[in-house]
Amino acid sequence: MSMAKKLFGSFRPNTFNKDHYPAFARSLEEQYLQTLLTNTMSNTFYADQNELFSDAEQLHQEMAKINPNFMAKAIIFARNEGYMRLQPLFGLAILSIYRPDLFAKIFLLVVRIPSDLSNFLMILKGMGRGEGGRAVKRQVNRFLSGVSEYWAIKYNGRGHGYSLGDAIATAHPKPEDLKQQALFRYLRGLEANLALLPKVEALENLKLASTEEELIAWIERGKLPYETVTGAIKPSKAVWEALLYQMPTFALLRHMNALQRAGVLEEKRNLDYVVNRITDEQALKKAKIMPFRLATAFRQMDHPELRDALREAAELTFDNLPELGEKTAIFLDISGSMNGQYLEIGSVFALALYKKTQGSSLFWLFDTEVVDARPSRKDSILTQAAQIHARGGTDTGAPVRKLIQERRKVDQIIIITDEQQNSGSPFYEQLRLYRSKVNRDVKAFIVDIAPYRHAMVPDQDPQTFYIYGWSDTVLSYIAQSVKGYSSLVERVEGVSLDG
Predict the structure, then answer these.
(1) pTM for the full model?
(2) 32: exposed, middle or buried (C-beta count within 10 Å: 0-12, 13-18, 19+)?
(3) Which residues of the chain have pLDDT under 50?
């Protein structure tokens, strides 16, 4: 019996995907990672918000019962390396019921900023758990002990769930000194000694300022964040200019249009500053900006110099991705269900990966047909990604079938998709055929950017690796696996629960 037949001959699909096409159910750990790293619980092509919420809740509960240690590690990974927030917080809330010890251990590794705390408390309330009991309050107190003035003025807006003041009123933390006592009183809306809180004092004086000069003076004296200022006053051009030099990189990216509309970028000094910040490799890394955010900003921006800066930023984001070698085939799903954000993400990922290949590597687009896109390794990722559009149905086996027909030998296949096949021959059927006819050692990497829990390949295939998520960090696992490193599940199993 051949090795291929021994390993794969008896594998048959055991479930159906969202389009009722035969598919495989992978391990609970794989499904959990996929949900954490791709599911924002907003409507998708195949599932609405309520269905995704229900699926996620069930999966969180299953993991908490069956493998809570992996659950805790996966939540940490998704929050800190996958840059996801809502699903890790949802998982954290459920973990607090089943394993309070693990919940306490990872709380501060998942609840990183005040908006995390607000969302977490809202989730608890939505689950009918009120404030969560003593175990939760202890962790909330730990978080509140580290609240700074900056957080106080940036995140304490009311009317959007739990504010920091609401959390203080609920958990009753004991202040460590007079400054913290003043901060807690201010956050609760009580009279406080603002002389101990210079940033807070600057904000309160900003609200009372009557001239543009006074406004700018208080912004600069308090180094007030843009969210706080724009929430308190309507910024003029001069105010936007003052805010510009205090904005974090992510804020600059989000507000380039506002800065342009206000006329701030008409001055070369300001424009040069924005361009330099957006193309600062270390600043980009520190800001943990999702690659598709750059694509979104590029699509919305019409300023030529800023578009060039965004092009450069995208190249820098993926600059440290390891080389993938000469014989790599990259397949990008452009079917109708990928339209919108999925294709925006997928196009950027696919082109970034292609730029790390060499020689005769392939870049094919597919729906039910296959197109050899022949992208340039020299032209920018964002320029080329903007030219890729969604179209028809989905035949995930089509690009592999073309490899077989052309007898193209590649060492690794990377397919970026939502896995929702609805016609043609299955990917795995064609992959097995390719291994038997062309290259039995080929590795396959499936980058899944959708939350659907059904898969194209069964768990038992040792030469296929799944990668989930929207962060540029997930792509590094492809290159690592090519060189013999662990799968994404094994990577998560190696996460420390001690921070």
Answers:
(1) 0.88
(2) buried
(3) 1, 3-10, 159
